[in-house]
Amino acid sequence: MSRYPQRRLRRLRRTPALRSLVRETVLSPRELIQPVFVVEDPQSAGPIASLPGVQRYHLDQLAGEIERLTAAGIQAVLLFGIPKKKDARASAATDVSGITAQAVRRCREAREDLVIITDVCVCSYTDHGHCGVIADESVDNDATLSILAEMAVAHAHAGADLVAPSAMMDGQVAAIRAALDDAGHYETGILSYAVKFASSLYGPFRDAADCAPQFGDRRAYQMDPANAREALAEASTDVAEGADALMVKPALAYLDIIHHVKQQHPDHPLAAYQVSGEYSMIATAGREGLLDERLVALESLTAIKRAGADLIITYYADRVANWLAS
Ligand code: PBG
Ligand code: ZN
User: Fold this and answer.
1) Options 84, 85, 86, 249, the catalytic residue
2) Structural domain boundaries enclosing 307
3) pLDDT tops 90 at residue 4
4) In this structure, what CATH number is given to the domain that contains residue 222?
5) Number of domains in the chain
6) 223 near 234, Cβ under 8 Å?
7) In terms of C-beta density within 10 A (0-12 exposed, 13-18 middle, 19 or more buried), how is residue 110 classed?
């Protein structure tokens, strides 16, 4: 006769070694991507008030930072260039020797085997702060495509491994793929910000990248946080347009989306972006002594991976690598 409970799940939780033996999800520095802010104006380098512990670097500081990151075990960076000059048409964005292109070259010189990914969007380059050019008081989708494509080609030309379009313009992946191929950059891949929600968690980033919209908001191009089915449509269109890898952003509040996109596109690497607001909430609460920053960061990132993310973009990348090594 069987006695209840036959299966005692606590048996496999009894010691650290048993728990480690049956652990299903393990973080590794190899799947973490560090965002790096690079400013053209050296005066703007330094700490970012809204992102405690994160800095903006100028070009001459980049090699040292890459050295520090790779020594910690981080092998991939996502570059955000912040130009001196902004205008309505984002002219600095397509400059082959613009700030992001120069940053790519410096990173490549510093480290031949680094995976260099660039953010492709114009909101840091436009004087109005929107992710595309404006016509009749709204963002003109199709007029923006050629600018994004030209920007991506400039980054590829400088040596980026992957370009990551984040503007949420319809057709941006197809336009970029065609332009890269026409320019002979058929080996440059596209990590698409396929599912990017119009989130209130981007606030700290907008200080860091100086890209807050000067009027209105981004809801006419970024996704409504209430929608999950539409997220699958976004992922499918980007796959059809030739995306090599997909991204869901933000991460922790969108674990269901991460899970669904991974199920729908199991053969595409899926990245999740733990965004600035997610980072700053944990970092600030940690600094205030309200919670243990290290444990909460590791728990959040483990949950993001468990939900289905293969890669995680996080401002904690370098510290996680160090925590995992210690
Ligand atoms: C630019 C861009 C944003 C982020 C990444 N690329 C801001 C935005 O869309 O307003 C957010 C990243 C973060 O919050 O960490 N399009
Ligand atoms: Zn943008």
Assistant:
1) 249
2) 27-325
3) no
4) 3.20.20.70
5) 1
6) yes
7) middle
